Amino acid sequence: MSSSTSKTKWIYEVFINFRGEDTRSNFVSHLYATLSNAGINTFLDDENLEKGKELGPELLRAIQGSQIIIVVFSKNYVQSSWCLDELEQIMECHKSTGQVVMPVFYGVTPSFIREYASQTFGEAIVSKTNHFVLHNSDPRKNPRNKAQGDDHYSRDRLKISEKKDSLEQALGDASILAGWDMDNYR
Predict the structure, then answer these.
(1) Which of 19, 95, 103, 155 has the CB geometry, 3.0–4.6 Å to 77, for a possible disulfide?
(2) Euclidean distance between CA atoms 96 and 18, whole angstroms
């Protein structure tokens, strides 16, 4: 374990990252109950978010403040911009602070995640990166002005490309970590 993780005061012992519609009412609810019953301080988005707080900053704080992160990959995981944002932050924390990331493959295989990160998931990644550019573009630029519009478009395309690369890297990096393929445990 790196020295940075041994000195960190963690808020949570475990953070569970998952796609709600796929796993919340089955696998994740059982995992959360088991961890909680064992006395493990676990973050689950609907259990620990303070009412009235913005979802993004509160999740970011929980991710950064968790010693172990369990990523539950499922069929619709990468269709969620929230999941992709969280995963990107999770992998950044894993690299910078040495947080432990434990992937669980629920109804999908590790190779499925790797093979489709730039194919099937490509649509979700492009959608997510387009959303990123829309919300991070300079509002002072007027796209109707051709010179400014072309420059603005070029910067947007670069941002999209960088965001797409970042998301693909996070998916790829997470999918090659040692984890559990739940199809082997049924």
Answers:
(1) 19
(2) 22
What does the block give as tokens for 43?
């973050």
For residue 124, the domain's CATH number is 3.40.50.10140
CB atoms within 10 A of CB 111: 11
**What domain range includes position 180?**
3-185
Pick the catalytic residue from 54, 58, 86, 92. Answer: 86
3-state SS class at 146: helix
Contact at 8 Å (CB) between 69 and 102? yes
86 classed as catalytic: yes
CA–CA distance, 157 with 53 (Å, rounded to integer):
32
Quick: pLDDT tens for 32-53.
999 999 999 999 987 555 555 4
